[in-house]
Amino acid sequence: MSDLIKDINLVGEQVDEKSVSCEVKVTENTANEGQRKLYIESYGCQMNFSDSEIVASVMQKNNFGTTSNVEEADLVFLNTCSIREKAEQTVRQRLRVFNRVKKSKPGMIIGVLGCMAERLKTQLLEEEKMVDIVAGPDSYRDLPKLVGDVDEGDKGVNVFLSRDETYADIAPVRLNSNGISAMISIMRGCDNMCSFCVVPFTRGRERSRDPHSIVKEAQELFDQGYKEVTLLGQNVDSYKWSDEENNKARLEKKELKEEDVEIVSFAQLLEMVAGVSPELRIRFSTSHPKDITDDVLYTMKKHENICNFIHLPVQSGNSRVLDIMNRTYDREWYINRIDKIREVFGNDCGISSDMIAGFCTETEEEHQDTLSLMEYVKFDYSYMFFYSERPGTLAEKKFEDDIPLDVKKRRLQEIVTLQRQHSAERNALNVGEVQKVLIDGYSKRSKEHFQGRNSHNKVVVFPKGNAKLGEYATVKIHDCTGGTLLGEIID
Ligand code: SAH
Ligand code: SF4
Ligand code: F3S
Question: How far does Cα 47 stand from its chain's mean position?
Answer without folding.
Answer: 5
